Amino acid sequence: MKFITVAAFAVGMLSLSSVYAQKTDSVTLAQTAATQWLEVVDGGDYAASWDQAGSVFKGMVEKSKWLDAIQGIRSPLGAVKFRKIKSADYKKNIQGAPEGEYVTVQFETTFENKNGAIEVVTPMKDKDGTWRVTGYFVH
Fold first, then answer.
1. Which tens digits make up the pLDDT trace of 6-40?
2. HSE-up of 72 (CA within 13 Å, CB side)?
3. Which of 29, 63, 106, 132 is the most exposed place for a label (fewest CB within 10 A)?
4. Cβ 112 vs Cβ 79: under 8 Å
5. pTM of the full predicted structure?
């Protein structure tokens, strides 16, 4: 009986570590997607940032409106002086968004004209399995 209990516990632990590994991999892939997308934005190629965004993002924001919005947000801030990941949270649901896999990545960022900013970038696992940005906010 003890053997069965120990075996069941071991199987349960393996299952949990598999789920944890999948979440960890998802967070890592999402962080990479967020960082690469921010590099495009940092370079001022706002049209490419829309092109590289996720299908949910593109369905909610027309390209021309994105170009106006991101220009208004980023231009006054100036160049990025420093950025590091503050946190990354994996979620299956985000209020007001379709069900899916999301990672909300917060960056501590210092811009030329703003110290202590927090950038929030939210990649979503797109239909093809690729992590793409579906949200961006600076405060």
1. 444 444 444 444 444 568 899 999 999 999 999 99
2. 7
3. 63
4. yes
5. 0.85
CA max distance for the chain = 68
Lowest mean pLDDT among 5-14, 36-45, 115-124: 5-14
- C-beta pairs of 43-51 under 8 Å, 24+ apart in sequence: 44/74, 46/70, 46/71, 46/74, 49/133
Domains contained in the chain, CATH given:
2-138 (3.10.450.100)
**Phi, psi angles (nearest 5°) of residue 39:** -60, -40
With contact defined as beta carbons under 8 Å apart, do 101 and 25 qualify?
no
CA distance 109 to 100: 28
